[in-house]
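Researcher: Quick one. two chains, 1124 residues in total.
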Amino acid sequence: MKRIYLVILPVLVFFSCEKEVQIDLPDVPTQLVVEGIVEQDQPPLIILTKTQGYFDPVDVSTVDGLFVSGATVTINDGTIDYPLTEFCTSAIPDSLLGIVAAAVGISEADLQAFNYCIYTSLDPSALGVSGATYDLTIQSGSETLTSQTKIPEPVYFDSIWYELGTGQDSLGFVWVEMDDPDTIGNSYKWFAQRINHYTYGPQQGEIKDAQMIAPLGSIFDDKFFNGQKFEFAYNRGELGNYEGQDDEGPEERYFKNGDTVVVKFVSLDRPNFFYFRAMEDQWATNGSPFASPGNLPTNINGGLGVFSGYGAAFDTVVCTP
Amino acid sequence: MKNWLALAIIIVFSITSFAQEKFTVSGYVKDGKTGEMLVGADVYIKELLKGQSTNNYGFYSITVPAGKYTLVAQYFGFTDFNKQIDLKEDIRQNIELGFFLDTLDEVVVESERKDENTNGTQMGTIELDMTQIKTLPAFMGEVDVLKSIQLLPGVSSAGEGNTGFYVRGGGPDQNLILLDEATVYNASHLFGFFSVFNADAIKKVNMIKGGMPANFGGRLASVLDITMNDGNYKEYHANGGIGLIASRLTVEGPIKKDTSSFIVSGRRTYIDVISKPFIKPTAAAAGSGYFFYDLTAKANWRISDKDRLYLSGYFGRDVFTFANANLGLNFKVPWGNATASLRWNHLFNDKLFLNTTAIFSDYNFAFEAEQSQFKFKLSSGIRDYNLKTDFSWFPGSNHKVKFGLNYIFHTFIPSSVTASSGDQEFGSPDVTKILANEAAAYVLDEFEIGSKIKVNVGVRVSLFQQFGPFTRYYKNETTALVDSTRTWGRGESIVVYPGFEPRFAARYLLRDNSSFKLGITHNYQYVHLASISAISLPTDLWFPSSELVKPQIGTQYSLGYFRNFKENTYEASVELYYKDLRNLIEYKENSQPDDNVEDNVDNQLTFGTGYSYGAEFFVKRRFGDWTGWIGYTWSKTMRKFDEIDNGSEFPAKYDRRHDLSIVFSYDISKRVNVAASFVYATGNAITLPYRRYFDFTESILVTEWGPRNGDRMPAYHRGDLSCTVKGKHEKKFIDPETGEEKMKPRKIKSSWNFSVYNVYNRANPYFIYFNNEGDLNAGNLDVGAFQVSLFPILPAVTWNFEF
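Model:
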């Protein structure tokens, strides 16, 4: 239904005029926001930030000021407590940033630009285990936040391949075939990353995608195809509002012949499915009057954001037509 | 229930039986020139000031003691009818009124004229005169009935350009819109910019916003009763107009003179044709088109003195297409209504009038989209088969009794979705239908006690039943996955809701020109509209009550003071109302209405209560060189839902604190009329984003919203002007016999209408949206609020003709 609204909008635009308006919001107390990921074979990652007023100005210093330091963060796998330590990127040598970027899912360039602070554990026994359930406790100032998530068993693709788009000779999509387990309620999120480098253009020499990118509609469940073998493909997504050299123009949404694409196919629990689906819906209706203003269904008690358990299945394909 | 009805009839009958010899004068009131039945004409015995207004078929019946009287008939715009009658037996007196605006006679204002404003019990009822509506400034040159009612107090527009309307804090689904007794589910073309009613085909518009009598039901807030023209019984005529956005043509005439007639009206827009040359082929809007057309037709036969048959139909369609090669996207959205009603009027005798109607009503829309390998089709609709019978009994002794039955068979298709990606198909190919029965029986009596008190008291008993085949998906609260299902077979009853709806209205005359009116009504509504957005769209879904969805229930108390001035030239009123509403419906937060496969639409809903109260002030000048009115409403409408905003009270989408309309029409000369209107309304409620935070993994800015509808958009106000210039209706000719210059009426009469919408070009907010652009990591993230306004100053020209 939301799609209808997205496309009816252009007609209204034909008739209408638009102007920016100033809105005075009342003073709203800040809240704590948790972005937490536990993934099998990966160290736990918690990013703790604060909300800002919606219209607060944004500049370089804004990002630094968001992070909340000095909190006590603990993850429990059902038996053992793993306390997490805070690391800020300004304190990490540049040479290690690459490893951190891969672990954290934020590009090396971004990590270099700002003082990102994350909470994690270097304890090898704190690595995620698939099938396990994790409890999160955060103590910050006088506030306590708790949450729980599970890392579902990952679901692997039967096959992955590349196909040219209709009428295209060098652009196409990554297709996969998967076998959905018989249990109803399997929820998935698709990420893709091109790990090859630009051989042309203003970003020549740079890696095409510095981090995993989830396109719009990346989150779905098995409502329509529970227990079935199922083929699908995704557009190449864009990272938020970031516009790379091929995010506009004929290559938008397509992968190109010769790209090496790594697909990270994540299984999630139900509360995560609701959160990410609502988040994508909110993102898709950015700028639409048809958005119904619902707040994301958070699984953080006492705060906002989400604590996710990723059952990640990786697969790679080289785009040969 | 049968015993109840019998008892009521016996009581009323016994009241009449002890009187002295009484006789009845009855008949039909018609427009002398066209033969059209006049609805709501006042017919009364001058000496006794006792009478009736004609019903929807132009019929009246007055029973009084034997004697010699003057029978008077009056209708706005027509010369009064006076006739001496000697009532010593039952008389059939059909009346033909002359349209005075055609002659040069002065209007004689009778000081003892009955006036509905003060004398009728129908409180909260507004009768709209088509002549007046046609002089009001029209949006894009198109005269619109629904736009006109929004200029009245208590009735607010759903927003810029929307035809959907709210009455006394009620939602757009709470208005019963009837066209010759057939329910019209979506009375708007394109986003509500135009209504489906072609003003040329309409005879009368009655809006009931309070004190709804027992013969109407099924909706909580209002009844908009629209009667079509019958068609000229005497001569063939055509009239129409050619305008900037649309053109229309109406043809009417007798099938058999004075016995049967027909009328056919059509209208089509050509925005698509006109705008095509102005849109570059590469523009976003290139390949888009929009057009609508509507067709209204009616035929009727006077089979005998006692029997008449009417057949009316409406068919309309909007088709919106959009194609954009850049996005690889094209889609088509067709939607529309079709209604048909067959009515049989039967006069048993001078006191008992029957109307039986068979009605078909259908509304549906579809949305078909295609983008690269992805195809999507959604369709939704509602179809009714309806049979009703209404008796009007005039036993005399100042009683007018109405009773009847109404049965509707509903078929809902709330949404049927199919989608495919490449070769993979999703969704169920079978269309899910929901079936229901809705029935009602009512009896009401309108009677006078003494000379000051008039009462309309009635009871409506209604029933709703959902029956199979149907499958219910019971969903788990936490996982939102289906826990269990239950299937009902064909015809199996699923749930039954009974409703007991007492209605009461009374009028107390203070002096000849003023009165108090009181109304208390209790209503049930079984059919609902779920709307996810602030704008009324054709994609809003109609669905029935069910196991999960209880009927909406409303109780309204209204009190009013009505007064006329200067021999009824001015009408004024103050009305206060309070409404209590239960079982109101909203979508759950974060609901995804396109997930309707293997699900029931009502699993996405949440329920609550609400209330609304307000005061309406109205002053109107009815006659003279200049006419017009000022209407002001102060109101407050709130809701309370456990699952929204943690159960705290929040304003309804339709909460509008202030609403002001000023309408003015002035005849500069016999041929030139100017009209102006001004509207002011408190800004629409809006939910503002209060906080934001970042999701770093996806580089997305997430919005945290403030209280639901907790803030307001800027106020809405607008002025419109219009000028109508009638062409000369007569032309000179030389009389061949006398050689004199004389005047004779022209065959083709025409007029030009110039209108300007939004004369001072105010950018009224249509909606405000929030957007973020730029990238956080690049430090150029920009968050802003943008207001979209729809219509700047819009002039329009229409040429209207008649022959």
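The mean pLDDT of chain B is 84.
Researcher: Thanks, that's what I needed.
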